[in-house]
Design goal:
The complex is a heterodimer. Chain A is an alpha/beta fold. A 5-stranded parallel beta sheet of chain A has the order 12-15-18-11-19. Chain A has a 4-stranded mixed beta sheet with strand order 1-2-4-3. In chain A, strands 5-8-9-10 form a 4-stranded mixed beta sheet. The longest helix of chain A has 18 residues. The radius of gyration of chain A is 28 Å and the shape is elongated. Chain B is of the alpha/beta class. Chain B has 3 domains: 76 residues; 183 residues, Rossmann fold (3-Layer(aba) Sandwich); 60 residues, Orthogonal Bundle (Arc Repressor Mutant, subunit A), CATH 1.10.10.10. Helix content of chain B is 46%, strand content 12%. In chain B, the strands form 2 sheets. In chain B, strands 1-2-6-5-4-3-7-8-9 form a 9-stranded mixed beta sheet, with helices on both faces. Chain B has a 3-stranded antiparallel beta sheet with strand order 10-12-11. In chain B, helix 1 packs across helix 3, helix 9 packs across helix 10 and helix 11 packs across helix 12. Chain B is elongated. Chain B starts with a helix and ends with a strand. Classes of the chains: A alpha/beta, B alpha/beta. Chains A and B meet through helix 8, strand 19, helix 20 and helix 22 of A and helix 16 and helix 17 of B.
Chain lengths: 513, 373
Amino acid sequence: MLSTITSGAVYGIHSHLIQVEVDVSQGLPCFQMVGLPGSEVREARERVKVALKNMGVKLPPVCINVNLSPADLPKSGTMFDLPVAVGIMIALARIPQETVEDTLLIGELGLSGELKPVKGVLPIVQEAARQGIRRCILPAGNAWEGALIQEIESIGMENVDDTISFLLGHKTESPLVRHDRLSDLEAIREQNMEENLDFADISGQEGLKRAAEVAAAGFHHLLIIGPPGSGKTMLARRMPTILPPLSMEESLEVSAIYSISGLLQSAASLKRTRPFLNPHHTVTGRALAGGGRIPMPGLISLAHRGILFLDELAEFKRETLDILRQPLEDKKVQIARSSGNYTYPADFMLVGAMNPCPCGFYPDMGRCRCTPYEVRRYLGRISGPVLDRMDICVEAMPMEFHDIVDHERGECSEDIRKRVMAARERQKLRFAGTAIQFNGDMGAGEVEKYCKLGPDESRYMEKMFVTMKLSARAYHRILKVARTIADLAGSRDIREIHLSEAVCYRGMDHKYW
Amino acid sequence: MTEEDKAYMHWLYQAVGMGNRGLLRGLETIGTPRQIYQMASSGELEEKVSRRYHNKITYVIESVAGYDVPGEYERIRDRGIDMVTVAEAGFPEKLKSIPDSPYVLYYMGGLPVAGQKTVAVIGARDCTEYGRYMAGQFGTQLARAGVQVISGMARGIDGISQQAALRAGGYSMGVLGCGVDICYPRENKELYDALTKQGGICSEYPPGVGPRAVLFPPRNRIISGMADAVLVIEAKDKSGTLITVDMALEQGREVYALPGRGTDPLSRGCNRLIRQGAGLVSTPGELLQELLADYPDREELHQQELSFLPKEQQDILSLMDMNPQPAEVLQQRYKEAYHRHLPFPELLHQLLQLCAEGQVKQVGGSYFARCPG
């Protein structure tokens, strides 16, 4: 007899529903799996056989054939254990086929029959909901992930025996973990806000804070240059506290990536604050972009919708930084493997911090021990195209004694965030109906369209262009940033004062010599 | 000296090793370079030289084999390189009189004109904004007054003053510590090219000799030796610039120094020179008055008229100096001086206006310095 069960698998960030077809027929006893199963999928045979035995289910000596359809997609992961086990029970006519209609089954089996959590549940359940499936049976440890999706009923199971009982409509032994939906999602997310970091902790550094605010408002990439101990890292860590909180959709999008990486452990992992990742400068390109035989999302994907902070930017290997070029452009990263192309989203804000020179004190010539050549070489370590993407470049100034000792506490993150959110609202209105979300996403064409200057301002920019020796690229970047500054000021038009500030933040192309 | 003689001179100068002037003078008493070449190839040379020097001339004798005298000389001439020996009339007059004067000078472009005043402008490689500006001012004003500027074409003060002199249409000579066909430092390529066209480049080292640390101190005596006076723009307490000053004193050249603030490490060398008796010059005019008898005595105005600037910009400008300051420091100074908080965007706007007026310079991101004059 034949049975069909719906399960799913993750490919990059996309998921596919997989039909697990099981046929039981008379013949020499055997257990075969086809449909490009990976070795961990193939091992389901042993796990299922033993688990069923230990749950007290006796398998008759029959020939079992399992097909994972579509058969041309390579399958990996351990989530097919449960559907195979249930499929066999249906094929043996112990459970009616109708009980699994419109139901998604995912789960790894232990030899005792228990159900263990697996990776990537969230994106699979999302896909299932999109395709009209109304119920999912998951390992108890993953049930809350399923419950994040409003349209689907999520049922958590402790073991395979309970699953069979549940499908037959019997009473289960362990209490059923059943989430219709996590109605208190917002409350959970609210709880998860990181409260212990605040902008008020940073003393002085008005210029730096202001630049951070502009960067946050327009989602501009930010480069902080400054001497050691001037609070570059401190500021970067507090950047998420002034960014608008993740919306529910964004939260799910980010959580899906974490789910694939196996980093989504409990409801407590569901964040409202944006991700903040700061890899050490010895990080490899593969760890940053993602990779492996079966690709896993890299750090840039884990920083999706959040901040990727690269401290000591000049210490990163050039090849490592160059890997960022394509994701910075496309906001996603593509990894090609023999098994197919995998795409992971990577729409992050790049925040870099570095010293201005090897000794760290340039342009304070009284303290700087470096020659101009050394300074230039130090800055030259960062690849030009990556620097080009840095819309805002700002200096942290050395801390003075009185800054450390008797500083007044600055503005708190919440106040700054309010202004950032207001600026974001203006951007939302402006870009309604386009693919662009923030000023930082604008290309040259959009800059022409959305950053129109009045006659006075045009004249002013012309003057600046000549006196400050701007390049065409710098000019566009300045307009983008000026647009954000105007949004922060609540101004419909870009004024001279906005342009001036943006000129000061322009990238490093002509700034140093 | 004919071209042919020079070709042999070029050979001999390289063969004895450029540091060994004593041997060169000794050989000269035996015969002309050409005769020495013939003696060396026929084996007579050893007989003519006393036994003590035999081991010293072995290289001279060996170098004859396979050396194409006219060809090698042709090669440097093709690259626009000239040579002049101390015995010739074209050799810089002032340089002849110094102790340990170079025997041969290789040069590109032109040599300094004998009758004209010449000043060596020297100073630190890693200079401050102040030094950079002053080097430029001195270079320009000296050139305008027809004074020739000598320096080492190094990074920092040297290169800046020479560049300024050339831009003002004057003559400048760069004395190198390597062969004249090598541009060192490389970043001064633009200046190097301009010097070969409009000024001159010279060196006592034959073409092809690379820059080495030991070669630089000896070339400093040529810098000061070519000049009537030496001007130090900026120097640290212990600085290579002071070697040139010592040489200048030995050669009896006037030494002038530009004073700086007591706290400034890059002015400490200059201030000390002044205390030891060097002439104090704070403007190009002061130096020119010392050099040229007929230079008019007139008050120089450093301070530009600021009255056309808006009040606020004037206030900000009054808080700035030529040391680059972060905008935040200016914001703080403004608050202390005028008891008013100037919001950051407003301050940046005013500073940028000043930049556009040419009063202020943006040095790296949020640092700003005043441009005087």
